């Protein structure tokens, strides 16, 4: 088939080797296949969440919703566990993003300054625990000793900063804030704080955006720290609620609240529909945010490989 | 002697000269001490008979007791075997594919097409492990899942992918392919973007086909990154995918899905009588081997690829 295309269209340029057209065609097809393979499950889940339970079970849902309705979402909206989990996750994500980014920038900027005494030592000090981490048990004991078990702090604090991000941020500052700029503002009488606040920070919007996104999504997607540190269900992030319902299948009808929810759970096929809607709710926020920061990724990867 | 004091003075002055930078560093350093170094100090729990009442400091030393218990336990070899097979399989299957994807994307002439495919294939990276496993549970369900409906449609019989230990490793690795391939290709795309376009122009003038140019220009261009990443991956071969393994684990596939990390979680935190010391010892055992692998890999990277992390 690929050859057919090559023959049907006469090559415009003499220089173009005959095989290239078919290679390109195969290339486009393979990429399209992979793209569809990645996209299909996502579309299917969204379509199923809007379809009727009967259509899902009978296999009538192939790509687009069948008997479209929003019953599942209405049910979730009335479920205290899901709404509470959503709000908790929002809180953890926003505070985790702000705190993580602040710590990362506060570490990354000074470490990028060649005139900081003991720069190498400090960098090694940060890298050692990143290479050799203590593991979950000693970390758990620390959180326990700090009295943070079963509090929101246990979710936000222990994983607040990533040393890897500090290194990338440091490299960003090294490459993007020329030393001459610092000299110039010194002449104008600016001290380090003033320079950082008025010059360095405004110039570091891209790296701040990437950090916010990275930490925010990590918090939104996290569930394991909640699993080990929390027993109070009112503090559970959405992902942990989802795990209980989607994977463990341990859910009390009462946990989902309203009368309709109880009826849904009683009938397995309706419950499945509810699960699809839960998946959509859980994955939507990161997917909505990421295209806006996507343009920085390749740049970020470049910085990372330059390191 | 005067020169040393003078040097000390000037050092002190240079330190004081940038005191504001140290003030900025204070919060992150405090964070690292509390949440990264304190647990490292707490690792001694692996050598003690820990009791909550006495605390880490007050508990009695027991030496290598828990390490010996672990190495001699009947679970030792199955755990090592499961961990290694799962991670080596993952590495062999998923390491080359992002390179192929990056080369394919790089060859595409239409920017719009290439960007579109990238936008789609990065997306699963941002979806949580819980959701990915949730989607798998739904789609692989023996009765209502799409995959099994397709199997039945094609004349096969439904397969319980998640409840059968034969499929656990394949399900784990290939769902990982779905989730990570696109995003893993980024670093290779960045390396490809750094290749001088004149090389391609010159080769085109000489009549080189696309495949020849990929082979002689693009592949050598990404080789340094490839070697570094491969060696670094070798270093982390004991410790990937803990969360997903834990989520996919059930009593039916425990024989192949119990890896060192999940075992630590099970004996340390999940059981009704948590064995902190024993679990910490197992975790430390793994960390030490992982550290040796990282150092070995770093040494190799420096020698082979002339690149290293530290």
Structure commentary:
The complex is a heterodimer of chains A (307) and B (310). By secondary structure, chain A is mainly alpha-helical. Helices cover 74% and strands 0% of the residues of chain A. In chain A, helix 5 packs antiparallel against helix 12 and helix 14 packs antiparallel against helix 16. The radius of gyration of chain A is 26 Å and the shape is globular. In chain B, helix 5 packs across helix 10 and helix 15 runs antiparallel to helix 16. The model of chain B has no long low-confidence stretch (mean pLDDT 87). The chains are: A mainly alpha (307), B mainly alpha (310). At the A-B interface, helix 2, helix 5, helix 6, helix 7 and helix 11 of A face helix 1, helix 2, helix 6, helix 7 and helix 8 of B.
Oligomeric nature of the chains: heterodimer
Number of domains of chain A: 2
- What is the CATH T-level topology of the largest domain in chain A? MetI-like fold
- Strand percentage of chain A: under 5%
The CATH architecture classification of the largest domain in chain A is: Orthogonal Bundle
What's the architecture of chain B, going by CATH? Answer: Orthogonal Bundle
| SS class of chain B | mainly alpha
Query: Which shape of chain A, going by the Cα principal axes?
Result: globular
Taking the alpha carbons of the first and last residues of chain A, their distance comes to 46 Å
Biggest interchain interface, per-side counts: A-B, 101 and 94 residues
Overall mean confidence score, pLDDT of chain A: 84
Beta-strand content of chain B? under 5%
Backbone CA Rg of chain A = 26 Å
Give me the number of helical elements of chain A. Answer: 17
Low-confidence stretches of chain A: 1-14
- Name the average pLDDT of chain B: 87
> Could you name the ranges of chain B where pLDDT drops below 50 across 5 or more consecutive residues?
none
Main location (chain A): membrane
Pfam family, one (chain A): BPD_transp_1
Family (chain A): Belongs to the binding-protein-dependent transport system permease family.
Organism (chain A): Kribbella italica
């Amino acid at each position: 088939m690929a050859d057919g295309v090559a023959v049907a269209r006469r090559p415009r340029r003499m220089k173009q080797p005959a095989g290239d057209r078919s290679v390109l065609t195969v290339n486009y097809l393979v990429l399209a296949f992979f793209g569809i393979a990645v996209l299909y499950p996502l579309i299917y889940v969204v379509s199923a969440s809007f379809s009727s339970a009967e259509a899902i079970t009978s296999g009538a849902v192939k790509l687009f919703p069948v008997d479209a309705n929003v019953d599942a979402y209405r049910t979730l909206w009335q479920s205290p566990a899901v709404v509470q989990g959503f709000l908790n996750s929002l809180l953890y994500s926003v505070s985790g993003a702000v705190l993580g980014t602040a710590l990362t920038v506060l570490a990354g900027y000074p470490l990028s300054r060649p005139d900081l005494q003991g720069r190498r030592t400090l960098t090694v000090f940060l890298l050692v625990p990143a290479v050799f981490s203590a593991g979950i048990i000693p970390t758990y004991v620390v959180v326990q000793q700090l009295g943070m078990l079963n509090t929101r702090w246990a979710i936000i604090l222990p994983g607040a900063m990533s040393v890897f991000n500090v290194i990338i941020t440091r490299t960003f500052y090294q490459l993007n804030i020329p030393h001459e700029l610092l000299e110039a503002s010194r002449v104008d009488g600016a001290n380090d704080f003033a320079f950082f606040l008025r010059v360095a920070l405004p110039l570091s919007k891209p790296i701040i955006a990437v950090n916010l996104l990275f930490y925010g999504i990590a918090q939104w997607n996290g569930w394991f720290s909640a699993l080990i540190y929390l027993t109070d269900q009112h503090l559970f992030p959405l992902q942990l609620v989802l795990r209980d319902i989607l994977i463990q299948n341990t859910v009390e009808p009462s946990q989902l609240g309203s009368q309709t929810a109880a009826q849904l759970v009683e009938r397995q096929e309706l419950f499945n529909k509810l699960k699809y809607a839960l998946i959509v709710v859980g994955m939507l926020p990161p997917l909505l945010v990421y295209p806006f920061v996507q343009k920085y990724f390749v740049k970020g990867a470049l910085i990372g490989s330059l390191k | 002697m005067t020169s040393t004091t003078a040097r000390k003075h000037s050092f002190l002055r240079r330190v004081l000269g940038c005191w504001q930078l140290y003030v900025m560093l204070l919060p992150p350093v405090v964070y690292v001490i509390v949440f990264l170094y304190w647990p490292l100090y707490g690792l001694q729990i692996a050598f003690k008979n820990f009791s909550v009442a006495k605390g880490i400091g007050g508990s009695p030393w027991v030496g290598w007791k828990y390490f010996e218990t672990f190495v001699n336990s009947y679970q030792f070899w199955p755990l090592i075997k499961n961990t290694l097979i799962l991670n080596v399989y993952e590495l062999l299957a998923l390491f080359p594919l992002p390179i192929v994807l990056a080369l394919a994307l790089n060859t595409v002439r239409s920017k719009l097409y290439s960007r579109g495919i990238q936008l789609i294939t990065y997306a699963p990276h941002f979806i949580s492990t819980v959701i990915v496993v949730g989607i798998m549970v739904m789609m692989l369900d023996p009765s209502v899942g799409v995959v099994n409906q397709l199997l039945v449609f094609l004349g096969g019989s439904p397969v319980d992918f998640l409840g059968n230990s034969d499929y656990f490793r394949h399900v784990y690795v290939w769902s990982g392919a779905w989730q990570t391939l696109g995003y893993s290709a980024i670093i290779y795309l960045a390396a490809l973007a750094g290749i001088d376009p004149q090389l391609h122009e010159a080769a085109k003038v000489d009549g080189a086909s696309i495949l020849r140019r990929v082979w002689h220009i693009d592949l050598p261009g990404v080789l340094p990154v490839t070697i570094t990443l491969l060696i670094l991956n070798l270093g982390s071969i004991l410790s990937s995918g803990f969360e997903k393994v834990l989520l996919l684990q059930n009593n039916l596939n425990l024989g192949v899905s119990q890896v060192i990390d999940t075992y630590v979680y099970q004996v340390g935190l999940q059981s009704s009588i948590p064995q902190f010391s024993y679990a910490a010892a197992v975790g430390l055992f793994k960390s030490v081997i992982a550290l040796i692998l990282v150092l070995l890999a770093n040494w190799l990277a420096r020698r082979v690829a002339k690149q290293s992390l530290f």
